[in-house]
Amino acid sequence: PGWVLALRNGLSKLGPPGEFLEGLLSRWATGGGETRRLEIPQVKQSINAITSQSFFIPLYHLFLTYGGIYRLTFGPKSFLIVSDPQIAKHILKDNAKAYSKGILAEILEFVMGTGLIPADGEIWRVRRRAIVPALHQKYVVAMIKLFGEASYKLCKKLDVAASDGEDVEMESLFSRLTLDVIGKAIFNYEFDSLTHDNGIVEAVYIVLREAEMRSTAPIPTWEIPIWKDISPRQKKVSQALKLINSTLDDLIAICKKMVEQEELQFHEEYMNEQDPSILHFLLASGDDVSSKQLRDDLMTLLIAGHETSAAVLTWTFYLLSKSPEVVAKLQDEADSVLGDRFPTNEDLKKLKYTTRVINESLRLYPQPPVLIRRSLEDDMLGEYPIKRGEDIFISVWNLHRSPKHWVDAEKFNPERWLLDGPNPNESNQNFSYLPFGGGPRKCVGDMFATFETVVATAMLVRRFDFQIAPGAPPVAMTTGATIHTTEGLQMTVTRRTIPPIIPNLETKELTFDACRSSSITR
Ligand code: HEM
Q: What are the strands of the beta sheet with 490-495, ordered from one edge?
């Protein structure tokens, strides 16, 4: 109350010791005896104010006014919005056992079942223990070749567009690139979506769009029993899911046969050279799991590893289109480290600036921009008590753009990360930066995704210059599970004038003759 404040000011001028004064006044402030229970700042909003634009933007403005934790209420619903690094750390890491995936699990159940992302409790623990070892170092290193091959296919496609003088929509091309990569990496399936469309590619997109629609829709119409059967959209979703599930069942059956015929000696870094996929690892490990659970896991990995990486590449190329000085440095690095070779593990260690560009792109455009949790018990968030059953959004967007933690927070500045410093992550940035989450639910594909996006970026900028296409609509954001553009990323692609590479006869790596022969203009 006001009188307590006035008394505090008055007494402090008279000089009683500070701690004594605080103790005395806090008892008065709470009417004596009881402990003071602080109220989380509360904001009432109409749902339209939140859903009419990318919802994390109004959450950012409210953060600047109300601080690192506030309660957002619309109608009977309320969410806690967390933008404070220490509270985020408490929820994700220090007291992670007291939080579940909440709404996220409910929304994603139709596609991921009890896969790793939505699962909680014992199922999550068992599946995490089975899946993490599959993404071992040797596997990720083997994937570098795959990243190079898939990026090369994209180079060839862009080469044609450059010759024809046709603009390209890069967001959908990145989505195809990462779909091709993840299909091969997870279950040894050739989507080949960069080269042609087919039913299964379309089915994956139908399911993805549905998951995104469900995560942003204000009313869950899909839960209404009759609606499910009559809505043409829902029928399409069911058919798509059926097709994907039966394809996955076939792949599981094929892989099982392969494993049975193999002279198997399973060990820690086990990998089948012909089929290094995660599915092969899981079956070879003798993982005792139902086919339904295995399918849920594969589907989860497919979705988790596909759109996120595609979104990172999209926003990286958008940021680069506005930063020619960064592009020049990237190109210098790609020229000197890679030349025209497919990247190797050793090259990746040297592509330091490219890695910093991806780190910085992930800061400005975190995928997903918010992490969702629900409290399973009463807890304290900072100085505030909260009850069991609270729905919580940790805004990674706010953490990554907080003026408190970043100099020129809005500026794309890869130089903010020292080239020879440690790779930035949630631990060394004390939860001000958490592109892959943190704690026990941290992304299992962080190294995979970093290598994948670094390889694609280096190979593309090595060969082409990218500009926003003249007359293209402004690049604006919209949210699903990741941040999309509203109308695509239309770009004009031109071949670079690349300094001639002196061929190194020692090297046994593949070269890019097909692309290069037409791309050298001097
Ligand atoms: C979880 C980001 C790529 C598999 C997460 C989380 C984040 C994230 C922030 C934590 C979610 C939470 O705490 O609620 C990203 C980004 C990627 C990427 C930005 C690309 C740049 C991948 C890839 C894979 C993958 C390539 C698989 C190969 C997973 C899985 C989880 C997860 C399975 C759930 C882990 C668990 O709950 O135990 N990812 N991810 N991610 N990610 Fe990724």
A: 168-169, 490-495, 464-468
Question: What span, in angstroms and rounded, lies between the C-alpha atoms of 383 and 266?
Answer: 50
Residue 150, token pair as written in the block: 């898939």
DSSP 219: S
ipTM: 0.99
CA-to-CA distance for 121 and 409, rounded, in angstroms? 37
**Ligand 1 atom nearest to CA at 442:** 10
Pairing of strands 69-74, 42-44: parallel
Helices (H), 30-167: 47-51, 56-66, 85-89, 103-112, 121-131, 137-164
In the reported structure, the alpha carbon of residue 443 is separated from the centroid of ligand 1 by a whole-number distance in angstroms of: 4
Helix axes 170-187, 291-321, angle to 10 degrees: 150
Distances (CA, A) of 95 to 78, 118, 293, 339, 384: 22, 18, 27, 48, 15
Q: Would you state the structure tokens that stand for residue 97, as one six-digit string?
A: 């056992």
CA proximity to 199, closest of 173, 236, 160 = 236
Sorting pLDDT into bands at 50, 70 and 90, what band is 501? low
Indicate which residue's Cα is closest to atom 10 of ligand 1: 437
Q: What's 341's DSSP letter?
A: B
Coil, helix or strand for 99? strand
Judge whether 443 is annotated as a binding position.
yes
SS3 395: strand
In angstroms, the CA 86 to CA 67 distance is: 13
pLDDT one-digit tens code per residue, 217-274: 767 788 787 877 788 988 999 999 999 999 999 999 999 999 999 887 889 999 999 9
Contact 194, 180 (CB under 8 A): yes
- Ligand 1 center from residue 446 Cα (angstroms): 7
Choose the residue to mutate in 308, 314, 448 for probing ligand 1, maximizing ligand atoms within 8 Å of C-beta. Answer: 308
> H helices within 165-290, ranges in order?
170-187, 199-216, 225-230, 232-261, 278-284
DSSP tag of 467: E
Where do we find the tokens 């799991």?
289
Report CA(192)–ligand 1 centroid distance (Å). 23
Q: E strand or H helix at 371, and its extent? A: strand 370-375
7 pLDDT more than 80:
no
Upper half-sphere CA count for residue 304 (Cβ side, 13 Å): 24
Counted residue by residue, the chain has a size of 522
- What is the distance in angstroms between the CA of the first residue and the CA of the last residue of the chain? 77
Whether 444 and 131 have beta carbons less than 8 Å apart is answered as: yes
Higher pLDDT, 170 or 521: 170
Please give the number of the atom of ligand 1 that sits closest to the Cα of 101.
Answer: 14
Count Cβ atoms below 10 Å from residue 72 Cβ, excluding itself: 21
pLDDT of residue 406 exceeding 60: yes
